Amino acid sequence: MSDASPSPHPRSSHGSAPDLARRDLLKRVAIGGAAAGGLAACGPASSGGPAATHTTERVRWRLASSFPSSLDTIYGAADVLSERVAAMTGGNFEIRVYQAGELVPALQVMDGVQNGSVHVGQTAGYYYTGKSPALAFDTCVPFGLTARQQNAWLHEGGGLEVMRRMYADFKILNFPCGNTGAQMGGWFKREIGGIADMKGLKMRIPGLGGKVMDALGVAVQVLGAPEIYPALERGAIDATEWVGPYDDEKLGFHKIAKHYYYPGWWEPGPSLSFLVGRGAWDALPAAYQQVFTAASQEAASAMQSRYDAKNPAALARLVDAGVALHPFADDILRAAREASEQILSDQAASDAGYKSMLEGWRAFREQSFRWFGRAELAYANFAFRGA
After folding, report:
1. Is this prediction's pTM over 0.90?
2. pLDDT digit string (tens) for 241-264?
3. Regarding beta strands 239-240 and 202-204, do their DSSP bridges make them parallel or antiparallel, or are they unpaired?
4. Enclosing H/E stretch for 260
5. Do residues 61 and 119 make contact, with C-beta atoms less than 8 angstroms apart?
6. 204: left (phi > 0), else alpha (psi -120 to 50), else beta?
7. What DSSP designation does 42 have?
8. Pick from 341, 192, 337: which is nearest to 265 by CA?
9. What is the rounded average pLDDT of the residues 127-141?
């Protein structure tokens, strides 16, 4: 990702410095002043375009989110993007944010970006595996990477480059826009004792997690956030997953289903994305490309921090309200992991490009698990004991 712009260097109050030092100081002041008065003169790595320069061009974009505005953590990242872009351009670059359903349906945001009805979308790549199975990795796959590991893979492990090649087929440029952290396993109207209890269950769950559940005998449905509560209430589904305590409490699932399971093995660290139409991006002034890139990074940081701060108190409130917490049985976890790895391998067997990506991702996961399974896990096993 792009480096930060150089910050202004303070003026010296010492008039007796040697000429050479004074000239050097004045040079640095001039550079700093240019940075303070404009934008960094360095082109974004993702655009391959000319160097960014200060501009006062007025740009108006529309952003369609897959999420309702009531979910101020996920949807809130789009607000952060909009606010920061406006602040860094003196209001000249404006992104107006629309919640799910206002411009396009929740699960058709990528389509809206492709057909140009919106300039940018906020969504999850795994909603669109029908377009390309590899898009699941932009978000997460079952028994995959945690939030920190996913960020490491995307930003330092070559993952972002891989995913941008995938999205390029759809004339889209993707930007990570945040992570929820490890999710809960969802809400069930009745207790699930083991793998036998999964068969015939009607559950809302998207992405590869849905494919794994299907392999375990679950009747899978994919619904946007606004559709879940009514479906659960009228019995169209017996169970649902969403994110975690803070969002789930807002959506009110605990009023209908009292059994709350963990962990969300299908989403150990899902990242969301801003999807920008390639045409809109290429028409954007280079300086604004830099601004968008920086603002998307700030939005991503805000999402993760907000979830980590708000989930603990929300979980306590849910328990106080009578929600029963349950871990998934070991036989469910073992069967799910086996099914997950088989689904990934089967897809790789029929797609050479997918196979190459999967092999690199699995190698990264193996090394990452080896490290996190030492210091991180040892600390957590001791420090979190009894929590």
Report:
1. no
2. 999 999 999 999 999 999 999 999
3. parallel
4. strand 259-262
5. yes
6. beta
7. -
8. 337
9. 95
pLDDT > 90? residue 38: no
Report the pLDDT averaged over residues 224-235: 93
Level-2 CATH architecture, domain 186-267+312-351? 3-Layer(aba) Sandwich (3.40)
Q: Which two tokens stand for residue 150?
A: 């996913």
State the Cα–Cα distance between residues 21 and 51, nearest whole angstrom.
Answer: 30
Residue 224: predicted pLDDT: 86
CA distances from 331 to 208, 213, 248, 263 (A): 19, 13, 26, 14
Nearest to 61 by CA among 214, 213, 229, 288: 288
DSSP track, 230-245: HHHHHTS-SEE--S-H
DSSP 250: H
Beta bridge partners of 178: 272
- Tell me how far CA of residue 281 lies from CA of 98, 163, 302, in angstroms: 19, 17, 24
Cβ-count burial of 3 within 10 angstroms (0-12 exposed, 13-18 middle, 19+ buried)?
Answer: exposed
Helical spans, DSSP H, in the chain: 19-37, 74-88, 109-114, 136-139, 147-156, 159-168, 207-215, 225-234, 245-251, 278-283, 286-320, 330-349, 352-372, 375-383
**Strand arrangement of the beta sheet that strand 59-65 belongs to:** 93-98, 59-65, 120-123, 271-277, 172-179
Q: SS3 of 352, please?
A: helix
Per-residue pLDDT reduced to its tens digit, 144-167? 999 999 999 999 999 999 999 999
